[in-house]
């Protein structure tokens, strides 16, 4: 097992999903959020999920989802992980975990150290925190915009849960990011794209090669 594992998020085609699996990704991410250029339909998710071997975990990414959407997506995508990327409170995260029986990740949107203050409230409610860059107020998307936050904010931070690093990562900077933060799991989306929502098989391969060498 590599010391650093990687999730390739926002996959939507067989070719790019296969590249993520072949490159050694530990997780693949399917986005269920219509405003996102990476959004997948249930039928599309089901077809992609069938290509994922058992040792790679399938994460569904949601923004303030209702139970009906979660149920449908879990059924279609055979999801192992529910990633909550909106403004879900700890109570909602706990309810999703109890109802679905799945591993739950909660994204924390970070710009300053104050944004880390609420991390502890998810102890017992979520299984993992995902530190991502906070997008501008009024932005249509809560992530996947290639933004990064000051990774030094995580230096010395007492993490209340298992965690992953996201936000503006790519093959060129993931080594620096891991060196500063100590992340053991990294999550990339826009950093392996040629255009918003268009994953690039060569960039996926380069990112996974870079993480495997850390």
UniProtKB/TrEMBL annotation:
Any one of the GO BP annotations: L-tryptophan biosynthetic process
ATP-binding listed as a keyword: no
Domain N-(5'phosphoribosyl) anthranilate isomerase (PRAI) residue range list: 6-209
Annotated transmembrane regions: none
One GO MF term: phosphoribosylanthranilate isomerase activity
InterPro entries documented for this protein: Aldolase_TIM (IPR013785), PRAI_dom (IPR001240), RibuloseP-bd_barrel (IPR011060), TrpF_fam (IPR044643)
EC number: 5.3.1.24
Pathway note: Amino-acid biosynthesis; L-tryptophan biosynthesis; L-tryptophan from chorismate: step 3/5
Reaction(s) catalysed (UniProt annotation): N-(5-phospho-beta-D-ribosyl)anthranilate = 1-(2-carboxyphenylamino)-1-deoxy-D-ribulose 5-phosphate
Keywords for the protein's UniProt record, in alphabetical order: Amino-acid biosynthesis, Aromatic amino acid biosynthesis, Isomerase, Tryptophan biosynthesis
HAMAP family: PRAI
Record family assignment: Belongs to the TrpF family.
UniProt cross-references to NCBIfam families, sorted A to Z: PRK01222.1-1
PANTHER family recorded: N-(5'-PHOSPHORIBOSYL)ANTHRANILATE ISOMERASE
Annotated protein name in UniProt: N-(5'-phosphoribosyl)anthranilate isomerase
Taxonomic source organism: Sphingomonas cavernae
């Amino acid at each position: 097992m590599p010391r650093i594992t990687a999730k390739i998020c926002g996959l939507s085609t067989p070719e790019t999903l296969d590249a993520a699996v072949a490159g050694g990704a530990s997780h693949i991410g399917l986005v269920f959020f219509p405003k996102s250029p990476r959004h997948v339909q249930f039928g599309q998710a089901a077809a992609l999920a069938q290509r994922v071997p058992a040792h790679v975990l399938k994460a569904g990414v949601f923004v303030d989802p209702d139970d009906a959407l979660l149920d449908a997506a879990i059924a279609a995508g055979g999801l192992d992980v529910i990633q909550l990327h909106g403004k879900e409170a700890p109570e909602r995260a706990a309810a999703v975990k109890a109802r679905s029986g799945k591993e739950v990740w909660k994204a924390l949107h970070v710009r300053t150290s104050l944004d880390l203050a609420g991390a502890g409230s998810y102890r017992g409610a979520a299984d993992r925190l995902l530190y991502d860059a906070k997008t501008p107020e009024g932005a249509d998307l809560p992530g996947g915009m290639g933004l990064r936050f000051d990774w030094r904010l995580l230096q010395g931070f007492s993490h209340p849960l298992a965690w992953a690093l996201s936000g503006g990562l790519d093959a060129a900077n993931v080594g620096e990011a891991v060196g500063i933060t100590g992340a053991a799991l990294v999550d990339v989306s826009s950093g392996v794209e040629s255009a918003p929502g268009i994953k690039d098989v060569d960039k996926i391969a380069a990112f996974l090669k870079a993480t495997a060498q850390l």
